[in-house]
Design goal:
The protein is α+β, with helices and mostly antiparallel strands and about 200 residues long. It folds into 2 domains: about 120 residues, no CATH class; about 80 residues, no CATH class. Helices cover about 40% and strands about 20% of the residues. It has 6 helices and 10 strands. The protein has a 3-stranded antiparallel sheet with strand order 1-3-2. Strands 5-6-7 form a 3-stranded antiparallel sheet, with no helix packed on it. It has a two-stranded antiparallel sheet with strand order 4-10. The longest helix has 30 residues.
Length: about 200
């Protein structure tokens, strides 16, 4: 999962030192405003970098990102949690090569493939078929489970073709490294900006 934790003890000491007699409520005001910008920057980078690699739109990524603040006021975390993804690219493919096919001869059986990573080809899904769905304009891709019997075999939910969870996708190490670097960069800039604004208004 994507996770950002910022230890605020050092920034708080820096803010107090700069504010001097104006510290206290103003310290937490500076922190609140700066953290909001930092977390927003973190989310923006995560969404941008994820969309470069995976077939997900920003609404699906952002909807699975939850921002929570720690009670002691020293840390803030951005955590992504989600169920499995049904948002992926899929289409008819050649069973042998996995290449996408746009035309079929009459009576020819259609094979379906899917992918969530943009660089990959569509992977053939065994026993798969396409059905219309009220929840999705494109419909949904299902696959009859092999070796599953009883109620599980009759449950359409168990037939859904799904990709990894959003939390797993956005948890990409390279993506998170870039996002954290950007968040800390914005945090430092905003702290100085907010402190300067308070000092100038009290001058």
């Amino acid at each position: 999962m994507a996770d950002l934790e910022i230890d605020m003890r050092e920034p708080m000491a820096y803010i107090d030192d700069r504010l001097g007699k104006l510290k206290g409520k103003n310290t937490y005001l500076v922190l609140a405003r700066s953290l909001k910008r930092a977390v927003t920057a973190y989310q923006t980078v995560v969404i941008r970098e994820t969309q470069k690699k995976y077939i997900l739109d920003n609404k699906n990524i952002k909807a699975n990102m939850k921002i929570t603040a720690k009670k002691n006021g020293y840390q803030l975390s951005t955590t992504s949690r989600s169920k499995l993804v049904v948002y992926y690219d899929w289409g008819t493919v050649s069973k042998k090569s996995g290449k996408r096919k746009n035309n079929f001869r009459v009576g020819e059986r259609q094979y379906y493939g899917a992918r969530v990573y943009k660089k990959n080809k569509l992977k053939h899904i065994v026993n798969s078929f396409w059905v219309r769905s009220k929840k999705s304009e494109r419909g949904v891709l299902l696959s009859r489970p092999d070796g599953v019997k009883g109620k599980k075999a009759r449950s359409v939910t168990n037939w859904l073709v799904v990709a990894p969870a959003v939390a797993q996708i956005v948890g990409n190490e390279e993506t998170n490294l870039k996002a954290k670097e950007r968040a800390m960069e914005i945090l430092e800039k905003r702290i100085d900006h907010e402190v300067d604004r308070i000092l100038s208004s009290k001058a």
